[in-house]
Amino acid sequence: MKRRDLLTSAALAGALPAWAQPAGTMTLPEMDLHDPFIVTDTATKTYWLFTKNHPSFSGKKAIGVMAYRSRDLKHWSKAELVFQLPADSWANEGCWAPEVHRWRGKWYLFVTVHNESLPLAAPSPVPGQKTHRRSTVLAVAHQLGGPFTLVRDGEPVVSKDLMTLDGTLYVDTKGKPWMVYAHEWLQLRVGAFAAVPLDDELRATAPPRELFRGDASSAAKPQQGQGIIVTDGPQLYRTADGSLHMLWSSWGDDGYFQTLSRSKSGDLFGPWEHLPVWLAKGSGHGMLFRTLEERWMLVVHRPFKNARGKLYEVRELAGGFELVRQRTDLDLDPAPLPPSPA
Fold first, then answer.
1. What residue ranges define each of the domains in the chain, with the CATH number in brackets?
2. Contact yes or no for 299/289 (Cβ under 8 A)
3. Of 11, 13, 145, 161, most Cβ neighbours within 10 A?
4. What is the distance between the alpha carbons of residues 135 and 207, in angstroms, rounded to a whole number?
5. Cis peptide leading into 271, omega within 30 of 0?
6. CA-based nearest residue to 33, from 287, 297, 337, 314
7. Which domain of life is it from (predicted)?
8. Can you give the pLDDT at residue 237?
9. DSSP secondary-structure letter at 92?
């Protein structure tokens, strides 16, 4: 059926498909969001922004994930609940850092959940802190807007004895899937990034391997007087020349920040070199995406609390990326922050 016929049928039924609906009237300063993840759906010319559910925005009281839609990155629809954590799940909180990836004809949601009443056997090395179950789990849907349902009853991708968060899908040059994730500082004191190989059903096929720890970057500074180094929000990108880059966040001299690391070998296991801070002053947990015009853009949240989405123009260079400018024409930020000096 042609798009015009679909539109006519939908109109007669009283509902329009997502690509035919108005762009929306909300703007980023009005949209509560943390750890934003944007998917560009070229088929419907629609941007989907996924974030943890906030009942006051989605209208649904649930531990879950909601999504905003846009046609132009400036005007957004009201948030819709696309995933709800089942009441009988082992987890009872979280839905942090949702990411949605296309794999084998389906859409997979990677999301971090936890339960503080389920302690782990190994104590935390950080005085006054406790370890508990916290893991990235998967959910799946046949369409981008969900609804997503848990995969394998919500069992973690890696061992439940590991405190893991912010899992992301990485597909290597041979087409093999991996989950790259942050290993929580609560369990290590110095947080790390690790990768676990997956099969075609996105099950772990071997133990995870560490990529690097947060203190490998001179920008990441110890916190709370206890030697804590935070690592979160890993995202992996390969430039046209084959260079592999990881975008990630930590805490430094100027608060929460966004930075890049580059694999010298082009391989997931490095060795990794660590580049200067891109954005600070509470900016972080971002991701790069391509616009409908095939241009790179960065979305981050800022400030850390009461977070709002910020958009930056990005340029791909030989062997890397350059942060160009904040797109205040799109994010309407009343207090724009230029990129950090290189």
1. 23-331 (2.115.10.20)
2. yes
3. 145
4. 15
5. yes
6. 287
7. Bacteria
8. 97
9. -
State residue 319's pLDDT score: 85
Q: For residues 259 and 270, is the Cβ–Cβ distance under 8 A?
A: no
DSSP for 176-188? -EEEEEEEPHHHH
Residues 6+ apart with CB under 8 A from 332: 27, 28, 29, 74
pTM for the predicted model, two decimal places: 0.92
Here the tokens at position 256 are 């929460």
Largest CA distance in the chain: 64
Q: Where are the alpha helices (DSSP H) in the chain?
A: 3-13, 55-58, 185-188, 328-331
pLDDT of residue 318: 85
Residues of the chain with pLDDT under 70: 1-23, 342
Stretch (H or E) spanning 248: strand 244-252
pLDDT digits (tens, 9 = 90+) for 60-82: 999 999 999 999 999 999 999 99
E strand residue ranges, 45-176 = 46-52, 64-70, 80-84, 93-103, 106-119, 132-141, 149-150, 164-171
Distance CA 104, CA 151 (A): 15
Cα dihedral sign for 137, 44, 50, 315?
Answer: positive
For residue 178, give both structure tokens: 């991996």
Tell me if 326 sits within 8 A of 334, measured CB to CB.
no
